[in-house]
Amino acid sequence: MTDSSNDVTPDRLCKADALPPSDQHAQQYVAVRNAHETELLEDYVELIAHLLKHQGEARSTDIAARMGVSQATVSKTVTRLKALGLVSSKPYRSLFLTEKGEAMAAMSHQRHAIVLQFLRALGVSDRTARIDAEGMEHHVSQETLDIMQRYTREQERRSS
Amino acid sequence: MTDSSNDVTPDRLCKADALPPSDQHAQQYVAVRNAHETELLEDYVELIAHLLKHQGEARSTDIAARMGVSQATVSKTVTRLKALGLVSSKPYRSLFLTEKGEAMAAMSHQRHAIVLQFLRALGVSDRTARIDAEGMEHHVSQETLDIMQRYTREQERRSS
DNA sequence: CCTACAAGTTAACCTTGGCTAAAATATTAG
DNA sequence: CTAATATTTTAGCCAAGGTTAACTTGTAGG
Ligand SMILES: [Mn+2]
Ligand SMILES: [Mn+2]
Ligand SMILES: [Mn+2]
Ligand SMILES: [Mn+2]
C-alpha cells in the first residue's frame, strides 16, 4: 500500500539524491571511459598542431617538456598516434599531422578554447581556468559547449 | 638545439593562442594525471555510500550493474579500495566504507552535486548534465566549485 | 538436508600510459 | 672529418582497469 498524500516532503528530499535507473547510470560511466580513451590523443595532436603553427616544427623533446613526461613516453605514444593514422614522421625526425590528425586537432583546440574562455568569463582566474579546462574539456558534450559559448559571448557583450 | 621557449612571434597575433610557459603547461597535465588516479576510487566510494544509504547494503553485483563493468572488475577494484583503507568487507559478503572511505565519499558526492546542479542551472538538459558531470567533477578546482555554487544559488533566487 | 542458482573470487590475458637505462641516430663544434 | 652532445628509439619494468572463463561460496526451495 502506498500513501501518496503525505510523502511530498520525503519525495522532494529523495529526488535530489536519487540516481538514474541502472542502465542509464551505467551509460554515464561508459561515456566517461570512452572520453578517457581519446583524451591523451587529443592533447597530443592539439599540442603538435600548436608547435607546428607557432614553432614551425614539432619535436619530441618539446612535447615531452610541455607534457611533463619523459621522451620515451612521447616516443611510445607517437608510435600509437602513427598507428592510428593521426601523425606521420620518419624515424628520428620531427612530427607532422595527417589530415585526420589535423581535423582532430582543430576540433580539440576549438573545444578547449570554448571551455577555457567560459571559465574565465565565469570569473575563474587564468591559472586555475587553464588547469581545469585541460581536464574538463574531454567531458563536455556539444550541448553544454553551445551553452558555454552563448554565456561567454553574452558576458563579453555586457563588459564592452 | 632548439630553444623551446622562443618568443619571436609577434605578441598581438599570438596572445589569444599563446600557451603558458613550458613548466606551467606541464603542471596542467600533471594535475590532470593526478585527477585520473583518484577518479575511479571516488566514483566507487560515492556509489557504495549511495547504495548503503538507499538500499541498506552495497553488493558487488549492484555496483557492477551501475558501473557497467563485469563483476570480476568490481572484485579487483574493491581489493584495491581495501588495500587503500577506503573499504572494508569479509570475503563473499557485502561492502562497507571505512571512516576514510566515508570522508572521500562525502567530499566526492558534494562536489558531484555542485557540478550537476550548476550544469542544470546553466540550462543543460538533465540527461546531458548527468553525463558531463560524471566526467567533469574530477577536474574542477575548489575555486571553480565556489563560483559554480554561487552561480547556481543566484539562478535559483531569480527563478523563485 | 540437499541441490540448484546467484553472487563473489581467482587466473590468465590485454591495452594504456607511465618510468629508467641503454642503444642508435642526428647535429654541431672544433 | 671527427668527436662531443643532443635527440630519438628501444627494451624491460610497472600499475591501472578492463575482459572471459573457471572456480568457490552463499542462499533459497523442495
Ligand atoms: Mn586540450
Ligand atoms: Mn586536455
Ligand atoms: Mn561522482
Ligand atoms: Mn565521476
* Each distinct ligand: manganese (II) ion
Helix and strand content put the structural class of chain A at: mainly alpha
Oligomer: homodimer
Order of helices and strands of chain A: HHHHEEHHH
Query: Span between N and C termini of chain A?
Result: 61 Å
What amount of the residues of chain A lies in strands?
Answer: under 5%
CATH superfamily of chain A: Winged helix-like DNA-binding domain superfamily/Winged helix DNA-binding domain
Rg of chain A (CA only): 21 Å
Q: What is the name of the CATH architecture of chain A? A: Orthogonal Bundle
Report the sheet with the most strands of chain A, covering strand number, pairing sense and barrel closure.
2 strands, antiparallel
Can you describe this structure?
- The structure is a homodimer of 160-residue chains.
- The first copy, chain A, has 160 residues and is mainly α.
- Chain A has one domain: Winged helix-like DNA-binding domain superfamily/Winged helix DNA-binding domain (Arc Repressor Mutant, subunit A, Orthogonal Bundle), CATH 1.10.10.
- Chain A contains 7 helices and 2 strands.
- In chain A, strands 1-2 form a two-stranded antiparallel sheet.
- In chain A, a hairpin with a 7-residue loop joins β1 and β2.
- In chain A, α2 packs across α5, α3 crosses α4 and α5 packs across α7.
- Chain A is globular and about 55 Å long.
- The first copy, chain A, starts with 7 loop residues before the first helix and ends with a helix.
- The N terminus of chain A is likely disordered.
- Chains A and B meet through α2, α3, α6 and α7 of A and α2, α3, α5, α6 and α7 of B.
- Bound molecules: manganese (II) ion (MN) (4 copies).
- One manganese (II) ion binds next to α2 and α5 of chain A.
- Chain B binds a DNA duplex (30 and 30 nucleotides) through α2 and α4.
